Amino acid sequence: MKQLKILILFLWAMNLSVNAQCGDLEIFFDTADEWVAEGDYQKALDLLEKYKDVSKYQNCPQMKVLKSKILGLAMQKADEWVADGEYQKALDLLIEYRDEPDMKNCPEMKVLKSKITIVEGLIGNNNNTNNNTNNNTNNNTNNNTNNNTNNNTNNTLSTNSGNGLKCKSTNPIIVNLVNNMVKVDGGTFTMGATKAHDMDAVDNEAPEHQVTLSDFYIGKYEVTQEEWEAVMGENPSDFKGKPDSNKRPVEQVSWDDCQDFIKKLNDLTGLNFRLPTEAEWEYAARGGTKSNHYKYAGSNTLSSVVWYGGNSGRSTHPVGKKAPNELGLYDMSGNVDEWCQDWYHSNYYKNSPSSNPCNTVTTSYRVRRGGSWGDSARYCRVSNRDNNSPGGRNSNLGLRLAL
Question: What is the pTM of this model?
Fold first, then answer.
């Protein structure tokens, strides 16, 4: 009996020691999260990598969380490079983590592999664009002056964005904006929410109802500060003047401002951009025909897809740093709220059309969707509805384009 007691005490002491060691990982997580809130993904990644292979932590229950955090940070770093056009660096990083044996069972691996496919597609599109440019240059050199004029005009009118859209602008920022429009296949989905399915649902989200939409395009990202400035010649955002401001979403723009932006953008591109309808926005946020019926756009895990009041550091962040949703769209939940085309009415769902609805009945407010860097989790749900006066501006309100 005495030996048994000694053994129990020994195991208890060992357990205390292991728990104390494992507690260190929680401290590292907190430090890494602070750096992420500041936008320093590489520093956070380096910290967690440092402890991934330390032998004394290998049996800690937190090790699974650590590896998941590492994969998440690697994907955020890759997204940062993609936003800067450094596709190959992003691809190399993602492949490095895909091929690590001890990462293969992480739940984030599926998302990482889908990102690899997306980046490979971007590299292919970029190579095609370069080849087209070289061919055009050679053709222009060989043709006479009149043919050069004609060819240059035709090339401008048919700049290939890789998604079937043609843009007459040669401004690389605007061409990239067009290139980032995502084709969404139409379909039928359940719009809205009730407390029977979501305890956070409120009255203006009811009733749940079936909506059928035609095909449309929507922006992969929220409109950024550099895109707004390329079109409008000025930047109204509160969160400007930082090293990464160009890639942050534009804010402090009213619904009326957005209409001016869209008109000028259409003149520059020859396309017919607009704001998404509220139904299109929710359908795209839910993942369209690929929907996994998540609470937030792309996940039921808030922090993996959303910049909100709990992790944003009270600021916007560069677009595309969180994981995308099923359609490859970023920041549909969080970062900044997004204007929609519709006029807002709290009871609109009770009598709205079932096919391609858009509320055109004038009220005092326009619809805004998605939640923002300053909101709590409930406001970032895909079914949450909000509104603002058309002339109102705010540092948590921006836009995403549709076609």
Answer: 0.65
